[in-house]
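#struct-pred
JK: can someone run the complex with S-adenosylmethionine? inputs below
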Amino acid sequence: MSKTLNRDKLKKKIQSIYSKVAESSDSEFHFETGRELAEKLGYNLNDLDRVPDAAIDSFAGVGYYFDLANLKPGEKVLDLGSGSGMDSFVAGLHVTKNGEVTGIDMTDKQIEKAHNLADKNGFDNVVFKRGFIEELPFEDKNFDVVVSNGVINLSADKDKVFKEISRVLKPGGRLVIADIVTKEQMPESIKKDADIWAACIGGAEQSDSYTSLIEAAGLEIEKFKENSKYSFISEQAINASKEYGVMSISLIAKKP
Ligand SMILES: C[S@@+](CC[C@H](N)C(=O)[O-])C[C@H]1O[C@@H](n2cnc3c(N)ncnc32)[C@H](O)[C@@H]1O
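RT: done, structure tokens with the ligand placed:
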């Protein structure tokens, strides 16, 4: 294990794991994937039946936030770390043909898969773009809603991510996410392990400092809840979860 977290190595590790998630959801990960997970987290079955199965197979989110998001027809939505696209497609159904959804992800295999699924399944209002959530390739005040599921914990520059979200949201716009945080501060030895970071554990911020970063970016948190249905599956991940109170949360924050 290196003395400090090597960001390049971490990025490659994350891309390698989530390429595998895109290609084969049958592989063994520290976390669950697929339709069973989505149903357990509370996704609406009618929504799941209307989005491409292959996107659901590679779903690797950590919570359900569409109840908080309350997306309206015509809204413009950005999905950060859109993976194989399941949430972007669900959002596409909710905003209807008058709205639009853009998914952004740094892993080529995820973007390729999501883009092909949108194309083949007639989701004309959903587009996918390769990019980094720390440097969003969009103009200021561009989106009504930013959503994200299980992604921001993976960033080593969370303050940058929240500032970028605040920048691209329209005034009155909302951020609605599910993510992993911890009750206790985790020791550096865990934070420096790229494997455990890429499994959505090592990068998890302590809950209060996570919400402070959101507020420091100029967003006001309106609701914050724990998602008790989410749990990790490998022994290493379960042990870390128990020891440091690693948990899934959903929240909604507004840009004044
Ligand atoms: C746990 S998966 C979740 C994917 C999707 N939101 C879902 O619910 O299935 C995390 C995704 O975030 C992407 N990702 C991680 N860090 C990123 C970053 N800094 N910029 C852009 N995408 C990133 C990964 O490539 C991966 O597809």
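RT: quick notes.
The chain has twelve helices and eight strands.
The longest strand covers residues 169-182.
JK: thanks, will look after standup
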